Amino acid sequence: MLIMNVNLHHLRLFHYVAEAKGISAAVKLIPYGIQQPAISQQLLQLEDELGVKLFERRPFSLTGAGERLFKFTAKAFNDLQLTLRDLKDDVGIRFRVACPSVISVNFLPEIISTLLSDFPFLRPNIMEIEGNAIFAALLNNNIDIAISMADLPRSKSIVSTKIISLPLALIVPKNHRFIKKGFWPKTDFAMEKWIAVQEETGGVDDLKNGLSNLGIVPEFSASTNSIEAAFNYISMGLGIALMALPPASMLEYRNVKAIPVPEEFGALNINVLRLRTTNLEPRIINHFIESTKQIGRDL
Prior knowledge:
- The structure is a single chain.
- By secondary structure, this protein is an alpha/beta fold.
- It folds into three domains: 70 residues, Winged helix-like DNA-binding domain superfamily/Winged helix DNA-binding domain (Arc Repressor Mutant, subunit A), CATH 1.10.10.10; 100 residues, Periplasmic binding protein-like II (D-Maltodextrin-Binding Protein, domain 2, 3-Layer(aba) Sandwich); 104 residues, D-Maltodextrin-Binding Protein, domain 2.
- Helices cover 44% and strands 22% of the residues.
- It has 14 helices and eleven strands.
- The strands form three sheets. Strands 3, 4, 5, 6, 9, 10 and 11 form a seven-stranded mixed beta sheet that branches. It has a two-stranded antiparallel ribbon with strand order 1-2.
- Helix 1 packs across helix 3.
- The longest helix has 25 residues.
- It starts with 7 loop residues before the first helix and ends with a helix.
């Protein structure tokens, strides 16, 4: 019997591209560094190896052969991940959850505590993952469930439940002129320096897009992955920041204030994410979602 020698790495790249519905979108989901030209080149090699065209480039659409291959890779890679997971899980049920650090610090302990009170057999494994990286972790079965504030990718494999929508807010020093006099975005924003919060994982995309509509390019005086550090820089007068409206308890003892700006920058949705195909029991997923929603209601 003739066995075709197909590069498994190329199959994995094809799966990411088919999942994301495009090569540029797939770059955000692939959990290792690879750029769009390299992906395109390797997928051309895969098509050459198979002797068929797998997808149309612009606009993106799978061919009949591509649809057949995608159905196969979706099942094959999912089965492989589940088998590897089962080999490691000898006792109890591992529950791998990820969220940004601000949620991990302020809210996740209460959610996990409530979950364990009803499901003591769970073995939580908690990870702090910022921005778009959380989607790659989910699609690669590195986590089971996630709380995310990043813009959702186009993926049929990810199921999302909206928890709460928070307006984006300017975080400024308590004595800032915006607190005393208000602001006119097109002129006043151009005079400000900014603190970039989680810039590498998409944390300043809303700021850049909003300022771009006003013809402004932001000048950053500091960049940090920590909300706490951002508050410190703001209170020192190094700049102001844009982020989801923080709970009042986070600002209570700090020298900063929040000014909601939904008209200028919009809002940010907090979602619970999981894969459509998962081994987690629905009652565990539903309990986690309801506990998260309760905290959202409290906010």
